[in-house]
Structure to design on (128 residues):
């Protein structure tokens, strides 16, 4: 199951944060086809957001073909994304790099900007 964390100061719409976090869990293999997403009520209790916001996010994920709502049962994952399992050796290398960056005094936004610049360089024109 995924635990949503809402950052009210990020400037990113709450429903978009839910969509992004769900997709990240799918890419990392934390959510797999057949898994049930938390109910809207569970998300509301954990995050104190409006139930309609959760439903909007789930509808967006359903529109993208990633999940399906089953009346009376919940919302279930239909397919996964990517091939970067949470236990990938690359993740361990990235963890070490992030530790070094933090040790060098970089803030989260600095690290994100640096990482995004490298991604943009290496994946330029890549639609994925």
């Amino acid at each position: 199951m995924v635990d949503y964390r809402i950052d009210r100061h990020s400037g990113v719409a709450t429903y978009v944060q839910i969509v992004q976090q769900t997709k990240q869990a799918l890419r990392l293999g934390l959510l797999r086809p057949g898994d049930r997403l938390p109910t809207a009520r569970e998300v509301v209790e954990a995050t104190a957001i409006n139930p309609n916001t959760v439903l909007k996010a789930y509808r967006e994920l359903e529109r993208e073909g990633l999940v399906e709502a089953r009346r009376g049962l919940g919302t279930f994952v239909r397919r996964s994304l990517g091939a970067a399992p949470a236990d990938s050796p690359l993740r361990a290398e990235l963890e070490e790099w992030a530790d070094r960056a933090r040790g060098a005094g970089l803030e989260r936004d600095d690290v994100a900007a640096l990482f995004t610049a490298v991604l943009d360089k290496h994946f330029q024109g890549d639609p994925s």
User: Anything to note?
Assistant: The first strand starts at residue 67 and ends at 70.
